[in-house]
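Closing statement on the flavin-adenine dinucleotide sub-project.
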Amino acid sequence: MTNNESDLLAEVDRIARDVVGPNAAKVDAEGAFPSAAIEALAAAGVLGLTSATEVGGAGLGLRQAAAAVERLARECASTAMIVTMHFSAAGVIEKLAPQALRREVAKGRLVTLAFSEAGSRSHFWAPTSTATADGASVRLDAKKSWATSANHADYVWSSKPVSAEGLSTIWFVPRATAGITTGPRFDGLGLRGNDSTSITASGATISESSRLGVDGKGFDAMMGIVLPTFQVLSAACSIGLMETAVARAAQHAATTSFEHLGSPLRDLPTIRAYLARMRVQTDMAKGLLADTLEAIERARPDAMLRVLEVKAGAGETATNVLDIAMRVSGGAAFRKEVGVERLFRDARAATVMAPTTDVLYDFIGKAVTGMDLF
Ligand SMILES: Cc1cc2nc3c(=O)[nH]c(=O)nc-3n(C[C@H](O)[C@H](O)[C@H](O)COP(=O)(O)OP(=O)(O)OC[C@H]3O[C@@H](n4cnc5c(N)ncnc54)[C@H](O)[C@@H]3O)c2cc1C
């Protein structure tokens, strides 16, 4: 580990312990955006973790971003998902935006992905929203169905191409652009603090120079830049949730007793077996994430397959592990005493966040049978 890396991850650990953890229950209960945590992460340089040193970032990679997201998710998955979306959008800006914007993101300007739409739903690669040329300006009209941090971040935005062939074009759209409005407050089952609100663009005008990359080539950025980042960091988020679930369920089993028998819950072999399954499944997901990172770093031939697998694998495992955590912890968990109920709800999001688990299973099935994904 370099000094830069260990210093920044130590900062993540400190902020997770001192700011993110203490605020997590309130963020969930009130559906409140974790502003204190995001401000602390920005101030510590964590939001610039993956930006290049030449623009003032830390110049670290996906491995370190995954470590940061996992640590945050152990305390508050809403915060971890906000950071996941930030790194996913920041990757596009790092590769395709001018220096000035890259510098701002490296300094901590929060960004997010505004891809999903009311029309094409979870099929984010096929936007139905439009971008229309108007001299040196472009008019955006869209119904975005979800964007994490919608009222707090600026957007990496997809639309149909202006005039080129292709499925999409990507833009940088500041939240304050006239014609952009956000929908009703996000009131989700889980990840309740992440402000995943809908966004409408109605004649929103941006400069033609706000385009990120070439008209019609958005699909390449989605698949080449966003997909590996989002898949890996979503998996890291799921793993952080599982780690806390294992720890809390084990703690509950060790410290809660049947007084009439004089024995703790952990004396029951079934409870121990459930805890063992949780541990094994969590470690299997961690193994898949570790192998995915290695496959990406070494540009192994199976890297894309691993990228497709890692979010589906970790996301589905997390829903299973959290289901077991609720059972092991009994009615006490149902009444929120054990602290796994929030994690149980938060873990559900990975299944439906695009690419959804079912879409990933379809892609993986196509890959293993030698078919084209699209
Ligand atoms: C907490 C949260 C945060 C989010 N943040 C963002 C964000 O920051 N940016 C963003 O762009 N989006 C975001 N999303 C949206 C997300 O990425 C998905 O687009 C959205 O959850 C899809 O919901 P839907 O109802 O449109 O699903 P639908 O597309 O209607 O899917 C319904 C069901 O059909 C299945 N399905 C769909 N297509 C196929 C297929 N081809 N094969 C098999 N099954 C299929 C799905 O898996 C799902 O089970 C967020 C979502 C959540 C829940």
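The chain has a mean pLDDT of 97. With this model delivered, the sub-project is considered complete and its resources will be redirected to Aim 3.
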